[in-house]
Each structure stands twice: as structure tokens, then as C-alpha cells.
Amino acid sequence: MKTGLIFGLVVLFSLWYLSFSATRLDRLHHRVETSWANLDGLLQRRAAIALELAHSRAADPASSLLLTHAAYLAREAQIEDRSDAESGLSGALGLLQNDLTTQGESAEKALLRELSQLTEKVRVGIAIHVDAVNRTREVRKKWIFKIFKLAGSAPLPVVYEFEHDVL
Known about the structure:
By secondary structure, the protein is mainly alpha-helical. It has helices spanning 2-54, 61-76, 82-103, 106-141, 143-147. The termini are far apart.
């Protein structure tokens, strides 16, 4: 009788632990998705500001064309091409920022200030996303998650190359 009770408690505890672990992993996956959605929104806003800067009077035609192209690529890029597009936009913004800081009007300077503030938010968003991805990967490496397939069919979260670039 006593061994049956102990066995039942062990089974019950094991089931609770598996359920708790699966819920924890689900929350981590949700955190990755949320951090990516936030980062994606910030990157879309950055591309919109880049388009506004490209169409400003202070941008010369060649820089304007380059920045417009890079911004549209970043806004429309599929997930597998996103790293190249975001890195290209960062490079184009870097080229144009040098020109606009020396000769820009007040509207362009306001856009540059907004872009600077947004760049800081993007850096924080990248740090949060990378942290969420790393924590989720660490948890998924544990043997209990592999043996019982607690991740289900959820793909392994990834960090994109542009997240390592300097913005």
C-alpha cells in the first residue's frame, strides 16, 4: 500500500514537472515571438524615416535613390533576405547621415534626431530578442526537453545576421 502511494506521488510529481517545463518553454517561445514583433515594428519605422530622409531636400539625387532603394528592400524583404536588407539600409543611412548633419534643414535635423532615438530603441530591441533566443535555446538543449519532445513542432528560434551589425 505504501509503495503504491509513493509510486503514485512520483508519477504525479513527474507529470506536474513535465507540464511545468512545457509551459515554461511555451512562455519562452512566446517571448521570442513578442520580441521579434517589437523589433520588426521598430525596423519598419526606421525604414519609413529613411524614406522621409531620402525624399528631403537636403539629400542629393544619388543618395536619395540609394536610400530609397535600401528602405524599400528593408520594408519588403522576406525573412530569409531580411539580414541583407537591414544591413544595406544601415549602410545607406550611415552615408546619408554624414551629408545631412552638415547641411540639413530643421525638418531633416528633427528626422535625424528621431532616427537616432529610434536606433537606440532598435539596439535595445535587438538585445532583448537575442537574449530571448539564447534563453530559449539553452532550455531546449536540456535532456528532458529533448526526450519528451516538449518543444513540439516549434522551430528553433534564430538570431539574424543584421542583429550583430553596428547600427
